[in-house]
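Support reply, case 0932

Customer input (verbatim):
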Amino acid sequence: MAKPYPQVVLLGDSLFEFAAHTLSGFSFQSALQTRLIRRFDVVNRGFAGWNTTNVLKYLPEIFAEPSASSPKIEYLLILLGANDAVKPGAATSQHVPIETYKENLSKIINHPHIQAHNPKILLVTPPPVDEIKLQEVDVAYGHPAAIRSSAISASYSEKAREVARENPGVVLIDLWQAIMGEAISMSPEDYQPGGPWLGSPENGKQGGLDKLLPDGLHMGGQGYRVFFDEIKAHIGQNIKPDDRTDYIIPDWRVVTPPKVDLPKVTPIPLE
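Our regenerated output:
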């Protein structure tokens, strides 16, 4: 019987689907797989345009119940809400009411097919949006105005925080705070503490969001680097690059023992 690798699953919308891309020289998924190579498989289940209602409907098709021969989901990262937070009445029909969004997240976390794997769940808040940039982008696509707003998106991120607090064992990854904090540090002169957030019409300035969220919604390479830095503290933090005893399939020195003791080679950096 084949020995399956435990999995790290990325479940979400385009913010995870696009994590497989190399953007400005950085790929979130590649960096994570490099960190976990030969110990875990990183599986991307990001679905561009999807909201929590879509995921909940298709979840039995996305996740099979575990069996003796199937891989176990060891870590599950959930990043949903950017599409739920589309304004009500928008032509895309992606909007999910905020309380339904919260209920959907809890149902996903507690779904029998997921709980059967008993994974460590990392619930990620949606990042902020740059409404100033989205106004340009969405109008260019034919919408009368931006279909997302800074304030509405921030409220959905707060609901994700509530879900993490209300579900014991769920780890919160506050991507909203991480991206906004980095954006402010990149252009501190554009933000006054306690004032309107960057990217909002009330502030009128984008600050670092212009680089972190190139189209106002999706992260670029710099944004994904910020995200990866948040994840590192929770996945693979105990891996020692020069210790290969925890490989799922043994190291070559085990399957083909060398005739003499070989000097240790400095491993390639994980990041």
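We compared this against your earlier run and they match. Two observations from our side: The first strand starts at residue 7 and ends at 12. Strands lie at 7-12, 41-46, 73-79, 120-124, 171-173. Please reopen the case if you see a mismatch on your end.
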